[in-house]
Amino acid sequence: MSALVLAASRIGAEAAGPAAAAVDREARFPHEAFAALRKERLLSCFVPAALGGQGCSLEELSEICTALGQHCTNTAMIFAMHQIQVACLVRHSGQSAALAQALRDLCERQLLVASATTETGIGGDVRTSSCAVERRGERFALTKSAPVISYAEHCDAILVTARRAPESAPSDQVAVLVRKSDCTLERISTWDTLGMRGTCSLGFKLTAEGPLEHVLPVPYAEISAQTMLPVAHLVWSSLWLGLATSAVHRARAFVRGEARKKPGTTVPGALRLAEVMATLQTMRASVHDAVRAYAERYERPDELSTIAFTLRMNNLKVSCTQLAVQLVHQALLVCGLSGYRNDSPFSLNRHLRDSFGAVLMISNDRILHANANFLQVYKDD
Amino acid sequence: MTDPHAVTDQIRAILKEHAHLTMDVTALGDDADLYLAGMTSHASVSLMLALENQFNVEFPDRMLRRQSFESVAAIRRCLAELLVSDG
Asked: Can you name the residues that pair with A208 across neighbouring β-strands?
């Protein structure tokens, strides 16, 4: 196991895990985990060494998300979303000296980057924008009403999507790196949810100004297809695998404990646990297969802009989120009342509540609609 | 042997009806970026279906990528490949 993944496991066990209940209860940012992540320089793990990062592989990135997801879903989700933005900056900054410097700053100061892709009045369709970048000499101005910007009040910069210019079509979008110091955030909605409470996903009206060089030089359509969507689906699925693994771990520990009390008798949940293990293996294989598929194509952008690859990454997200919900539920059935109690070592309270967020963000129905559209032409030949 | 001008005219007619461009298709050159002219991923699938129907071809999966449908010229190239092989 790589040193980075081991560090993430340690942070999970020592910093993220112990604070997870409080983070959930108070719907607050997981400060403890991020202090530890920064100390180990894990926020810059995916940035190439040439810019000051650790240049970790996609496999390592996936395993780090899984490791964190086993201890605190909120920590893992914020970490994952940050890495999605980092991946976009790493791949799509072109020759921009300003963006390269931004990445160096990120590594040096362990900066945290958030994402503002959704817009009020448009819903979850991230490939449509209403707001537009206004160019004013060498600077840009941008105002966006975002129903959700996760951990916005705790980040150092936000990657914001908008139409290229006021006269651009709704799907002709760019991505802009907005530093916290270059914007104001006005709260427009709260975040009091069933689960994923520590992601602090409030809504904001964002008003920003900055240097034109902070507009990424590549159309957002390419950023989305080649990096944002595949990385998002990969890191999310990895963290949900972590959540499911944690729930199954508790179910296993419960069965072992019961077995020790009465050796020779069959624990009621043992058969169900056996089924659960088979399903967990499928989920794990699914994530690893997708990571490998993306890694193989990473240097071939043409391969990433195909319906075939988009379908594959969409399928990963849909199936892994459904499996996560299913596995946590099955783990509860194995643990029985012990899992249902909040004050038990086998409590699955947060696992259950967090797992339901997976199918909603982004909505699986939206993804399945997109897939259904593609399947009108896709032959799987 | 298919007349390239006739093919181009048919492509443009299909674009007008199915691609939901935010610009007038007659104002777009053969190499103009259709995505920048407003064609969404959803509309591009409608376009593909209409093209398959009109020209009685099937786009193989290797052609189902962004670049294949990014301009009138790109679409014409894909069709040329499929129509030649149809004899």
From this structure: A142, A183
Of B23, B45, B67, the CB nearest to A305: B67
Dihedral in degrees, nearest 10, Cα atoms A65, A71, A73, A76: -30
pLDDT category, B5, cuts 50, 70, 90? confident
Lay out the sheet containing A113-116: strands in order across.
Answer: A113-116, A157-163, A173-179
Which residues contact residue A213 at a Cβ distance below 8 angstroms, ignoring those fewer than 6 apart? Answer: A96, A97, A98, A99
**B54–chain A nearest CA distance, Å:** 14
CB atoms within 10 A of CB A234: 28
Q: Say what the pTM is.
A: 0.96
What element of type H or E holds A334?
helix A307-335
Residue B62 to residues A129, A372, B53, Cα–Cα distance (Å): 30, 19, 19
Chain A: give the shortest CA distance to residue B64, in Å: 6
**Cβ contact, residue pair B39, A307, below 8 Å:** no
Note the pLDDT of residue B67.
94
Q: Residue A315: what pLDDT? A: 97
Contact A362, A124 (CB under 8 A): yes
Return the pLDDT at B86: 55
**A315, β-bridge pairs:** none
Mutation pick from A297, A307, A368, A376 vs chain B, by most beta carbons of B within 10 Å, is A307
Tens digits of per-residue pLDDT, A9-46? 999 999 999 999 999 999 999 999 999 999 999 999 99
Select from B41, B64, B67 the Cβ nearest to the Cβ of A308. B64
Query: Which residues of chain B lie closer than 8 angstroms to A305, CB-CB?
Result: 65-67
Residue B84 has pLDDT above 90, yes or no: no
Distance from CA of B57 to the nearest CA of A (A): 11
- A302 contacts B64? CB cut-off 8 A: no
